[in-house]
Amino acid sequence: MQDKERSKVHAKNRHSPVNSVVRVGPMMSIPAVLRELGSEPGPVFPSAGFKLTQFADPDTEVSCLAASRLLARCVAATGCQYFGLLVGKSAGPSSLGIAGFMLRSAPDVGAALRGLVQHLDLHDQGGVPTLLIKGNVTRLGYAIQQTGAEAAGQIYDLAMSVACNIMRGLCGESWNPAEVLLSRRRPQELAPYSNFFRAPLRFNTVQSAVVFPARWLNHQIPSADPLLHHHLEREAGELHSRRDNNIVGQLRGSLRKSLLSRKCTLSDIAGQLCMHERTLHRRLREQGTSFSHELEDVRNGMAQQLLAESTMPIAKIAKALNYADVSAFSRAFKRWTEITPAQWRARNDSSQQA
Q1: Where is average pLDDT lowest: 165-179, 205-219, 302-316?
Q2: Which of 205-209, 333-337, 345-349 has the lowest mean pLDDT?
Q3: Beta-strand relationship, 208-213 and 179-182
Q4: Which domains does the chain have, with CATH numbers?
Q5: Nearest Cα to Cα of residue 92 among 82, 104, 109
Q6: Cα Rg for the chain, rounded, in angstroms?
Q7: Would strands 201-203 and 179-182 be described as parallel, antiparallel, or unpaired?
Q8: Phi-psi group of 344: left, alpha or beta (phi > 0 → left; psi -120 to 50 → alpha; rest → beta)
Q9: What is the dihedral of CA 57, 95, 196, 215, to 10 degrees?
């Protein structure tokens, strides 16, 4: 009976996802970008459930789902398929709140980016930053974890623009990535991306990230301020301590990051969350869910994003989600949606919408 009740709770959660919040800081230029493209923000904002006044203060918190809907409405209103890129270009590190302020006071780029990964959730609960270092290559990325988010490609454009601005703010305006990865289909107009990123571009990727040599992690930051950094770290810690430590949210964030590195076993995740496997099982059971349920939901969300926003082959998506083969992935996907991945892609192709 208990298992059935947990399944009911899980099914309810799957169809009614938690709506996380995000500060409007990096999105404050949306009204200006709309006007530059010949559209007045007046009609667009109400269509997404917003008032223009909500974007006057960078600390205003808004629904992640509503923010994604606003980006989708902006693309529909302007016909601009790189709207997110234009918004992100004008967003600097300070637009990220305390997580952004900490960047400039850190001693070096490595410490700054590790702090960003640790504290960005104080600004954005709808996605997770990633910092992957393999050999001499570093990837600073962002992954959406808000279920049901619209305009995922625009969100990734915006996030990677901000990531590039962060690196240029820390390393100098002449800094360029070695490569930029974007989890979206290849746009018709490449010039806006090439002109801003000044680097080779790869679309239809599993991960969205700016790629650069790991030696930049040792780059000393001219504005480093140890006392200020210590103060900001303490303030960030206090802000975290006041928040509800939702174990399901923490788990889903860890799973979303770990799928990229293929280290997403129960043992791996429990270690990341600094708890014993049995403790993790117990706390999830108290929330009416389980590790396997949450892993499947995260995979489901990632699969739907990649199917809708990219032209990545289904076999490659299956591999990215750690399925043994396409058949195993297709069976799982049909359990989630009652249709095959190919059928779902045909119905939800973002290039045919808006």
Answers
A1: 302-316
A2: 345-349
A3: antiparallel
A4: 21-228 (3.90.1520), 246-352 (1.10.10.60)
A5: 104
A6: 20
A7: parallel
A8: alpha
A9: 180
